[in-house]
Amino acid sequence: MTDIDVGRFGIWRSWQQTSPEFAREAEALGYGTIWLGFSPGADLGGAERLLAATDRIVIATGIVNMWATAADDVAAAYRRITEAQPGRFLLGVGIGHPEATREYQSPYDTIVSYLDRLDAGGVPVRGRVLAALGPKVLRLAAERTRGAHPYLVTPEHSRRAREILGPDALLAPEQKVVVDEDAARARATARAKIADPYLKLGNYTNNLRRLGWTDADIADDGSDALIDELAPHGDAATVAAAVTRHLDAGANHVALQPLTTNDTDPLPALRALAQALDLP
């Protein structure tokens, strides 16, 4: 299959919060992909509705949780969607976290088995990506999928991931941002979203330690330095420069997740960022 063009920048957003109206505006702003987070259901109906409401933008899952969704059901939904909307849907899958899944065991073997079932169900290697943080799963992403969709990472992770993935795999990290020039308020907004649950989940904290962050950085809801790296803040131009560091480090695409105070509408931030990033 011909690789889907995800563009250089996309949007990561909970599938429950992503309406057809939001998708149409994201498309008009020039974003290449909307990544649907928080484990979309196996029927992928939310992705289907967004595709039907738009003309160009790619819809991706970021990610379908392997423990919560049977691979055979996901494969059937994938075939249905791609037959109706060829070239516009990318299936992201991942293993989730032991803190959230009672059955969590043998994660690597589970990933391999799940990918085997997707193969059997007709999901092409180039039509899927894998949530990957550590070296072993990053290598698997390059071998068995189009590439990796890491979450809660830094440009340094993108640099290391590119070395492991090789030159051809897709690397599409998620990046939280806060478009707010008040540093204290922006940092508080970011910390409220990052500290709980993400700094309490071992897969993420272990990855941060691999990148050189210390226990002191992770403790007490995260050091200012860590929070600023995981969710850069400032005006739109400052934030745009920060997220572009992923591309400079080897990523092909960055999925932006604007964080807002009191969960207000992120579209104003996305509009400002689209202009700062000079999106088409």
- Per CATH, the superfamily is Luciferase-like domain
- Low-confidence parts lasting 5 or more residues at pLDDT below 50? none
Give the overall shape, derived from the CA principal axes.
globular
Number of strands: 11
CATH fold field value: TIM Barrel
Kindly provide the radius of gyration, computed on alpha-carbon positions and rounded to a whole number of angstroms. Answer: 18 Å
Share of residues in helices? 40-55%
Counting H and I runs of at least 4 residues, what is the number of helices?
12
> Could you give a short account of the major beta sheet?
9 strands, parallel
Query: Can you give the mean pLDDT?
Result: 96
The CATH first-level class comes to Alpha Beta
Q: Please name the CATH architecture.
A: Alpha-Beta Barrel
Query: Roughly what fraction of the amino acids lie in strands?
Result: 15-25%
Order of SSEs: EHEHEEHEHEHEHEEHHHHEHEH
